[in-house]
Amino acid sequence: AEKIKVAVAGNPNVGKTTIFNALTGARQKVGNWPGVTVEKKEGTKKHKDHILEIVDLPGTYSLTAYSADEVVARDYILEEKPDVVVQVLDSTNLERNLYLTSQLLEMGTNLVLALNMSDRAETRGDDIDIRRLESLLGVSAIKTAANEGRGINALLDSIVNKTESNPPLPHEIGYGGRVEENICALEEILGSDRELSKNYPSRWMAVKLLEGDENALSKLSSSSIEGKVQNFLSDLDHEEYEVEMADKRYEFIGTLLPQVCTTCAEDVSPSD
Ligand code: GDP
Ligand code: K
Ligand code: MG
Fold first, then answer.
1. CA distances (Å), 20 to each of 31, 54, 119, 155, 180, in order?
2. CA angle, 51 as apex, 111 and 130 as ends, to 5°?
3. Distance, CA 73 to ligand 3 centroid (Å)?
4. In this predicted complex, what is the ipTM?
5. Residue nearest atom 9 of ligand 1, based on CA coordinates
6. Ligand 1 pocket, 150 CB below 6 A?
7. Ligand 1 pocket test: which of 147, 150, 155 has the largest number of ligand atoms within 8 Å of its C-beta?
8. 227 lines ligand 1 (CB under 6 A)
9. What's the 3-state SS for the chain?
10. Considering the entire predicted model, what is its pTM?
11. How many angstroms does the Cα of residue 126 sit away from the middle of ligand 2?
């Protein structure tokens, strides 16, 4: 049987653990992530000739490096390179949840979205066009109501399909202007270290370097291009770039949302 490495990501309280439990049943192992007191849950599931090795990542709103949870989640994705990342979303709070989606896309993950709490979204009268969402983002999407076990089998199918077909290219958020120019220039510098660009998606790395992400920068410490990168970054105002890129991500989500659900955007805002 073919092994498929699956990571479950998502904001806190969206039903990640409920999905993880429904996927793995009793076959679980609980421990800690190395070096931090963040709980690590692993489990396996047989599905259609495949063995899914599933890890429940810590719940995060974002994939910057501001907390141990975020570093654990993104380092797992970067270093372990799971075959599929399942992002669990709260369907009643899509706008905020899609912010994490935009970051997962940026990391080049093979992404399956579990639109969980779909029972609540339906009760509320939200009609989410998941086919449209799939095509706009270049991902697979499934509606789930994990506490009732709804959609779990379809989610398993979708995970397996994701590894069998040629996955579509994930959507890329364009930042425009000087941001794109700098991303381009940084990608060129990064590309001259073959090993580095094999290990880390260079667009993701360029974005993080522009944001002034020290944790991302530290990943270049053994590379011959570290000095060149630091030189390039030395007179940039990282905060400006960080704000500009965050704005662009929200703008992207703000344009996307009304195309997949006409009522969804009404009572959510990133700050609530
Ligand atoms: P996590 O923090 O993302 O791991 O979320 P949990 O799995 O702990 O779930 C948070 C709460 O939401 C729990 O009370 C679950 O029973 C509940 N829950 C999970 N999935 C669903 C769902 O699809 N619909 C509804 N109505 N509740 C859910
Ligand atoms: K919880
Ligand atoms: Mg949990």
1. 15, 8, 18, 11, 37
2. 30
3. 13
4. 0.96
5. 15
6. no
7. 147
8. no
9. CEEEEEEEEECCCCCHHHHHHHHHCCCEEEEECCCCCCEEEEEEEEECCEEEEEEECCCCCCCCCCCHHHHHHHHHHHHHCCCEEEEEEEHHHHHHHHHHHHHHHHCCCCEEEEEECHHHHHHHCCCCCHHHHHHHHCCEEEECEHHHCECHHHHHHHHHHHHHCCCCCCCCCCCCHHHHHHHHHHHHHHHCCHHHHHHCCHHHHHHHHHCCCHHHHHCCCCCCCHHHHHHHHCCCCHHHHHHHHHHHHHHHHHHHHHHHCCCCCCCCCCCC
10. 0.93
11. 24
Residue length of the chain: 272
pLDDT tens-digit profile, the chain (272 residues): 799 999 999 999 999 999 999 999 877 888 888 777 788 899 999 999 999 999 999 999 999 988 999 999 999 999 999 999 999 999 999 999 999 999 999 999 999 999 999 999 999 999 999 999 999 999 999 999 999 999 999 999 999 999 987 766 778 899 999 999 999 999 999 999 999 988 999 999 999 999 999 999 999 998 999 999 999 999 899 999 999 999 999 999 999 999 999 888 655 444 44
Ligand in closest contact with the CA of 39: 3
- In what order do the strands lie in the sheet containing 111-116? 28-32, 39-47, 50-56, 2-10, 84-90, 111-116, 140-143
Asked if residue 122 has its Cβ within 6 Å of ligand 1, the reply is: no
